[in-house]
Amino acid sequence: MLMTLRPGSTPARDEAEALVLLREPGTVAVRAGSQVARCTLPAGLGICAVSLPGGESDVTVSAYLERAGDVVLVASSPWPVRAHPPVQDLQYTATMGVAP
Question: Source organism's superkingdom (predicted)?
Answer without folding.
Answer: Bacteria
